Every structure is written in structure tokens, then in C-alpha cells.
């Protein structure tokens, strides 16, 4: 791709670094911005800069937040004894979109995957154990992608929680094995949460 402007080329190259964005799509986005009013483009760039500069992570669940505690954890109407464990923030958004879950979340920041160099020490597992230790009659719902890595993570964390009086369940197999939560339709995801099953039954059937 040959450019007549170094400024244009630099902008395209930066957009093309985004996941799922190729050079052609990046060029289309940059040309769109060029056609917009300067004030609109400034507003766009200011929003991105502010996001990177000021974004925080909830001290309790590790969800993205503007404050030390995210709006979900800060909501007194949520069931704080019901914790949905997810791989990433996209999964929080997917489950919240169902409007069927009234508990809180715990974002692991990934799943155990030795082949990718991701061990338990790189995930928010210890903070989950500490969090559950301080809750009476807690229930943990594992809402991890139904694949080998997800099952391994569930098994590992389940073993870490065996000494605690906590109920451990996982979403039902409405989500196909090998599928990903963020791409599931809202109805299927909602039913999977409602029809959650004990982890030991899930592990045995895997």
C-alpha cells in the first residue's frame, strides 16, 4: 500500500495495530476521521488518551472502573455472596447484557494455559480465595469458556477452595464445548447461568 502522505501512513499503521483491523480497514477509518470536523477528531483522541491515562481496575473484582470500586461492586442491591468468576472483562459485559444475574464478579485476567505460558500465579486466583474467605455462605459460579483450559482452571481453583464452606457451581452446558462466552446469544447465556450445576458434576461429565 503506497501513501502520498507520511502523516496518513503513520495513522494507518497505528490503527492497523488494533486487533482485527487490517491495513484496508485502518485506511478507511483514518480517511473517515480526516473528513470529520477537527473538534470531533479532537474529542475522539481526547477520549482515548483519557481512557489510557485514567482507567482503573476495581480493587475487589478487577473489572474496569473509573473509581477504586466498580459500579457493580458498589451497588448494595447486588448479592455480594454470589460471585461469578470469568476470564476477562468482555465476559462481564456479555453476562450483564442478559440482565439475569444479580451477583457480583471476579475477573481472573485469563485462564490457566501452560502452552501459552499462563500459570496460576499470573491470574487473580489468590485474591479470589481471600475474597471468598471473608464471605459467609458464598457461592461461586464459574463462567469460563467450556474448553480444556477453562476446565483446568475450574479444577485448580476448586481444589484451592476445598477448605472453605463455599458452594461451587458452573454454568450449564448450554454453551457448546469449545465455544466462547462473549459470542453466545443472551438467551443461551442467561439459561446457562440459571441452570448452573455443581462443579463436581461438570468435571465428571467433561
Instruction: Write down how many β-strands occur, each being a DSSP E stretch of 2 or more residues.
Output: 7
- Beta-strand residue fraction: 5-15%
* Low-confidence regions: none
**What structural class do the secondary elements suggest?**
alpha/beta
Please tell me how large the radius of gyration is. 21 Å
Count of the domains: 2
Strand order of the largest sheet: 4-3-5-6-7
Named at the architecture level, the CATH assignment of the largest domain is 3-Layer(aba) Sandwich
- What is the helix content? 40-55%
Give the class-level CATH name of the largest domain: Alpha Beta
- Assign an overall shape: elongated
Order of helices and strands: HHHEEEHEHEHEHEH
The main β sheet shows up as: 5 strands, mixed
CATH topology of the largest domain: Dna Topoisomerase Vi A Subunit, Chain: A, domain 2
Number of helices: 8
Average pLDDT, all residues: 88
Distance between the termini: 48 Å
Walkthrough of the structure:
By secondary structure, the protein is of the alpha/beta class. It folds into two domains: 6-54, Orthogonal Bundle (Helicase, Ruva Protein, domain 3), CATH 1.10.8; 70-205, Dna Topoisomerase Vi A Subunit, Chain: A, domain 2 (3-Layer(aba) Sandwich), CATH 3.40.1360.10. The chain has helices at residues 6-15, 23-35, 38-54, 89-96, 126-133, 148-160, 186-194, 199-205; strands at 56-57, 64-65, 79-86, 103-107, 139-142, 167-170, 197-198. Strand 5, helix 6 and strand 6 form a beta-alpha-beta unit. Helix 1 crosses helix 2. The model has no long low-confidence stretch (mean pLDDT 88).
Amino acid at each position: 500500500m503506497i501513501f502520498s502522505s507520511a502523516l496518513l501512513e503513520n495513522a494507518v499503521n497505528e490503527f492497523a495495530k488494533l486487533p482485527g483491523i487490517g491495513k484496508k480497514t485502518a485506511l478507511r477509518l483514518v480517511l473517515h476521521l480526516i473528513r470529520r470536523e477537527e473538534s470531533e477528531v479532537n474529542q475522539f483522541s481526547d477520549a482515548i488518551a483519557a481512557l489510557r491515562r485514567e482507567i482503573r481496575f476495581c480493587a475487589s473484582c478487577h473489572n474496569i472502573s473509573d473509581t477504586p470500586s466498580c459500579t457493580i461492586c458498589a451497588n448494595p442491591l447486588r448479592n455480594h455472596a454470589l460471585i461469578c468468576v470469568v476470564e476477562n472483562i468482555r465476559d462481564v459485559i456479555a453476562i450483564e447484557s442478559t440482565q439475569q444475574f444479580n451477583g457480583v464478579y471476579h475477573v481472573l485476567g485469563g485462564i490457566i494455559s501452560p502452552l501459552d505460558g499462563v500459570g496460576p500465579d499470573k491470574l487473580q486466583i489468590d485474591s479470589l480465595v481471600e475474597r471468598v474467605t471473608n464471605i459467609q455462605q458464598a457461592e461461586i459460579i464459574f463462567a469460563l469458556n467450556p474448553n480444556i483450559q477453562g476446565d483446568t482452571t475450574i479444577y485448580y481453583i476448586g481444589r484451592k477452595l476445598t477448605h472453605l464452606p463455599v458452594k461451587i457451581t458452573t454454568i450449564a452446558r448450554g454453551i457448546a464445548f469449545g465455544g466462547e462466552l462473549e459470542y453466545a446469544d443472551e438467551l443461551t447465556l442467561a439459561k446457562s447461568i440459571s441452570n448452573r450445576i455443581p462443579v463436581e458434576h461438570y468435571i465428571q461429565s467433561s
